[in-house]
Design goal:
The structure is a homodimer of 443-residue chains. Chain A contains 17 helices and 11 strands. Chain A has 443 residues and is α+β, with helices and mostly antiparallel strands. In chain A, the strands form 2 sheets. Chain A has a 6-stranded mixed beta sheet with strand order 1-2-6-3-5-4, sandwiched between helices. A 5-stranded mixed beta sheet of chain A has the order 7-11-8-10-9, with helices on both faces. In chain A, helix 1 packs across helix 7, helix 9 crosses helix 16 and helix 10 (290-298) packs across helix 11.
């Protein structure tokens, strides 16, 4: 039986066990006994988009500070302990969630759980650690964003796409605001959002529901829930202009043409989101996709092209068409070729063959995802943190199976039609080397 | 003696009398006895840029509500009383200030002053007035912005120019946020910002300092000062991309090409601001200006072109180059012609003749401004509300006189050079009819 046939039977992908402690902590256990190891993740339903205006970067700064001293742990002791036990740990911050994880031998699960519970409500970094960590995040911004033209470009595309919405502010923060972040700012953010009733614990690996339940009850169970504010974000107004962003940068070797669209997230519109996921596979998914065949193979206008869609987002999500023009090809030619492909899509839709292939490929990927420990933990984490249910995740291959060609045509027409006016118009961007500036801006 | 010689003598333009009450109310009296009338204005040092995120439009909503019932006055009674006494009154809101004024026979000054003082701390509109006034501001937005392509265009240009800064939000507010504004929101704003120590009273007309002082002391003097928060606005990050905004609208008959620059306000940099004021006169001031002569008269590329600079702004101000392309002239041609003029300016600067003519014209305008009652009151109001001093205003012609050709060259180079990279790059916009859309977006 081919893997893809699997999904049609309505079987769960991960067979995760889920339950909740009395203090509101949601728990997902994904048993996997291939090796005596475990991935332990805590996801908080808070991210950069929940920051106060003018305090950009505080979510990410707080993530860093979580390693700098908590109940019973000296600064740096958390990670040092994990490493000394043969494991590894890290954390990351998005617009909508912040997550902490450790991968470690199963016998040390209790230890990492104890440490993680300790920093859920008991952060108290020494002030000199706060000062030095601020330097670290500023350096991180310099390295990853300020010295990276693609990041600078994305940041400005984002600001243009998300007017009056926090997604227009970069996760890492604006440098001049980061410089002024204090422990008081971090503590306000922490006290407001970090608590068991705003967290999801995901444990995958050589454990049973029973073991995790007992251990989590003992370790996390005594933490008091917090009073959670609503997730209140500003909303973008309808804007009908066509924004464009051109960035010339001396470090650019390969020009980029990008168009970013605002499209529904899974939380906002599950049906459309599923159709967009299949559309992504057909139009932009690798060397057999429509865009690639047309722009790279047939027309030789671009050396690479992709269309990518992110389903996991609390508010409006993003779909990005990204292309690298072939030498001597003007970015406008690429734009026109992309629009031409989109017009075909909007007019004729997709074929049943394309649909079948895309579904198979997506469903197979879901099955392969089961093999790792961190993969499924990630899927549950970002899914649950952005409004999906456990069933949405378990039966995702079934949901993908139900997407029709008509649905794909419909989302293409409603969100990607180059001849339609949108309330939140896509932003077109060119990232170009400095040397061709004169040629580009003149006729 | 020509008018322009006047300025060189270091004479005050308005001979205004200024003083302050104990409660912090700043008072400016501009005696003018041509007619037995008076203009009475109260300026609050608060505007749309001081709003809380997500509450856009509250400053302007509050301005409307100020007419809807206060201590001793029924809704609508304020304006009705002014009209019944043969006067007229109105109000306006900007990003940085909100002002209320009445023009009336001098014998009724006490009456309007009493009413104005009554609404400085005693607003209490009935809730049904709040509800109906919200409909009024929404309708105002529909009429003036949503149905007006130039306003829609400006709004989006502003959002692109002022990333992460409140000037990127329109003064009237975003429709979806205005819909949700409540009396509680307005009251919070009012209690925070409306008080004698955040206001400037300007009286111009057939009055003496003595009369106004005595009357103001009696009427405004008993109002208690409020605890004022700092004017804390978010700051735009440096962004090096070149943003562009294209808006096609069916109601556009005449296309527009616009480029908006962020430049210092008078408060931020008096010297540069004065140079920009003279530059504005030389480059963009009417049919004898450089832009007009080049683009309209000589090259016949545009039917009109202007460069306008606003000195009165709390934070970064704006300089706008605006042109209407002649029939069949592509907007890019206009852009190139503007850039070419700017390159000349940056390279060669201006001539002494141009400088002399511009100064004379500006200084003459200042002298003529003395003739009206409301003109000088306006000048003091927006000047003082955005950080200028009384002397800055009185000796403005002298200050203009001191601007050198070198200073103008310097501001042109630092703020308008088309080949320079700016931390806050200018935004280029095209406002175009819908019918030419296909031709415009294709090669």
């Amino acid at each position: 039986m081919p893997l893809s046939a699997y999904a049609q039977q309505g079987t769960k992908v991960f067979n995760a066990e889920t339950f909740k402690l009395d203090n509101g902590l949601e728990i997902v256990v994904i048993p996997n006994n291939r090796a005596p190891i475990v991935t332990h993740m805590v996801w908080y339903r808070v991210g950069a988009a929940d920051e106060t205006t003018g305090k950009s970067g505080i979510a990410h700064f707080m993530e860093h500070l979580m390693f700098k001293g908590s109940t019973g742990l000296a600064p740096g002791e958390f990670s040092k302990t994990v490493r000394s036990l043969g494991g590894n740990d890290n954390a990351f911050t998005s617009q909508d969630y912040t997550a902490y994880y450790q991968s470690i031998a199963v016998e040390h699960l209790e230890k990492v759980m104890t440490m993680e519970a300790g920093r859920m409500r008991g952060m108290a970094p020494p002030l000199e650690e706060v000062e030095s960590e601020r330097k670290v995040i500023l350096e991180e911004r310099r390295q990853r964003t300020d010295n990276n033209p693609q990041s600078r470009f994305s940041e400005q595309m984002g600001a243009a796409l998300y007017v009056n919405h926090p997604y227009g502010t970069p996760i890492i923060g604006w440098f001049h605001e980061m410089e002024k972040l204090t422990w008081e700012d971090a503590k306000n953010f922490y006290d407001k959002w970090y608590g068991p009733n705003n967290a999801i614990l995901v444990v995958s690996g050589a454990v049973t529901r029973q073991q995790v339940h007992e251990m989590a009850q003992r370790i996390y169970g005594s933490l008091q829930p917090i009073t959670l504010p609503p997730r209140q974000r500003t909303i973008s107004p309808p804007l009908h202009g066509q924004p464009k962003m051109i960035l010339h940068h001396p470090a650019v070797r390969q020009p980029v043409v990008q168009r970013s669209y605002r499209v529904p997230s899974y939380r906002q519109n599950a049906k459309d989101s599923l159709a967009l996921q299949v559309l992504e596979e057909i139009v932009g998914g690798g060397p057999t996709s429509r865009f690639y065949k047309s722009l790279v193979v047939d027309q030789k206008l671009a050396t690479t092209v992709s269309l990518s869609y992110r389903a996991e987002s609390w508010d409006d999500s993003i779909l990005i068409v990204h292309a690298a023009p072939a030498p001597d090809i003007h970015p406008e030619k690429i734009e026109q070729a992309i629009e031409s492909e989109l017009r075909k899509l909007v007019k004729d839709g997709i074929t049943e063959d394309e649909l079948r292939d895309a579904k198979t490929s997506l469903q197979d990927a879901a099955i392969y995802a089961r093999d790792s420990l961190s993969g499924p933990a990630m899927i549950f984490g970002y899914g649950l943190a952005t409004g999906a249910s456990v069933d949405d995740i378990e039966y995702w291959p079934d949901q993908i199976e139900k997407v029709s060609a008509q649905q794909i045509l419909s989302v293409a027409q409603r969100y990607l039609d180059p001849d339609q006016k949108f309330d939140h118009p896509p932003v077109t961007g060119y990232l170009l080397p400095v040397i061709v500036q004169e040629e580009e801006t003149k006729e």
